[in-house]
Amino acid sequence: MKFKSFTVQSSLRLGLICAVMFVTSWLIISGRPLTIIAGTGALLAAQIYSFFRYISKSNRHVVRFFNALRHEDFSESFSDGFMGGSFQAVSTELNTVMQKIREARSSAEAQFLYLESVFQHVPAGMISIRHNGNIELINTAAKNLLGINSVHNVSAIISSHPEFGAFYNNIHNTGTCVLHNTRNNGDTVTMSVTGSKFSRKGELYTLVTLQDISSQLEHETIKQELHIAQNVQTRLFPEQSPGIPGIDIQCFCKPAEEVGGDYYDFIHISDTCIGIVLGDVSGKGIPAAFYTTLIKGSIQSLAYTNSSAKTALSRLNQFLYDSMERQYFCTMFYAVLDFSAMTLHAFRAGHTPAFVFKNRDQSWSWLKPQGIALGLQPSAAFENMLQPETVHLESGDQIVLFTDGFTEAMNSDFQQYGEDRLGLCLKNNADKQPGELIESVRRHVAGFTGNHPQSDDMTMVALKIK
């Protein structure tokens, strides 16, 4: 019969040792022959040796189990197969602990793999450098920004980017710098680099982050250039309204972007006549602003050198037809104000109509001379369709020119403000001075559109006979 219980085996072995010791003692007291005493002594020694070997075997099994834990070998299990039920509770608890450790390690490994995946996919470059210069972690973004495939020590980065070495060697707690890297295709990448020191398990590390700021710098450059363009375009507009005795003229212009395609101007024709120009180039932004600049210089030159407004517009049309790309055109309202005769000779090249308020009978109407937009057709066709109209002005009369940025302004339901609302608003405020009238229209349009963004340039010129 084979006993597996550690307690039973230990008791039997101790009992046997005691029995042999008793027999040996009895033989000695009885004066038995030395050969018999020596035999029982040898048996006693064998039993003692067997007992200690048994104990050592049990200890080795326990030590092997804990060594496995110490060396992070969690595949080991504690078995009580040769020890019997006396170690069953210990075996159960130790194996439960081992299973918990296995689960915790599996969870930690999964978490590490997840964090490593996140680390590799972070758009910013990241490098973790040990105190001896060895690189512990480097993600894909950092490799792409620095133009390297594989690197194990920071010295490899410094050799290809000397300015990085100057930055790295001068990091105390934190530091920043800007690096440039020219890729194989000739593109230059500008990076913002930040470094910081931290301690982990008593060892000093440096964490370096790299951010591609090329697009940000490009955006800032474009923003600055647009600001310059905005200032240039602002100078295209008259610095002040013409001071004509008995006539009040006020203006307003708000581009939808930094620069726009709306344009207004006042042209000195003679001592008694000025030209009032309001134009709108198709589209918005820089291309429209470019053509606006072109039109300003052209219309001024043509108005000075041509006695007829119709001839000036016809020649401007031919110039734009020859110069502008086909997808662009310009609508224009050009009015010659004769303040000695108190008349307004109006030409409309495909532009929105003008608002006319007559103080004598408190009536209002749209001034709609015939004409097509500039740059669409050769001058022969353009001039044939251009038919001016004349308005006689009296005290209290008011004329308002505007671009379609007002009538096509939309609310959040994509409903347009429209000519009907604008006409009614202008009529209700026709008793006001031009500046107050423009401000009233602005507020009314803003109340209609709410938070919906402005989609087109908005320009208005109002004049009133005192």
Briefly, what is this?
By secondary structure, this protein is of the alpha+beta class. It has helices spanning 6-30, 34-70, 88-121, 140-146, 154-160, 162-168, 214-236, 286-305, 309-323, 379-385, 404-407, 418-428, 434-449, and strands spanning 125-130, 135-138, 174-182, 188-200, 203-212, 247-254, 262-268, 273-281, 330-338, 343-349, 354-358, 363-367, 389-392, 398-402, 458-465. It has three domains: 6-104, no CATH class; 122-212, PAS domain (Beta-Lactamase, 2-Layer Sandwich), CATH 3.30.450; 241-465, 4-Layer Sandwich (Phosphatase 2c, domain 1), CATH 3.60.40.10.
Write a structural description.
The chain is of the alpha+beta class. It is 46% helix and 23% strand. It is built from 13 helices and 15 strands. It has helices spanning 6-30, 34-70, 88-121, 140-146, 154-160, 162-168, 214-236, 286-305, 309-323, 379-385, 404-407, 418-428, 434-449, and strands at residues 125-130, 135-138, 174-182, 188-200, 203-212, 247-254, 262-268, 273-281, 330-338, 343-349, 354-358, 363-367, 389-392, 398-402, 458-465. A 5-stranded antiparallel beta sheet has the order 2-1-5-4-3. A 5-stranded antiparallel beta sheet has the order 6-15-14-11-12. It has a 5-stranded antiparallel beta sheet with strand order 7-8-9-10-13, covered by helices on one side. The longest helix is centred in the first third of the chain and has 37 residues, at 34-70. The protein is rod-shaped, with a radius of gyration of 48 Å. The N and C termini lie far apart (131 Å).
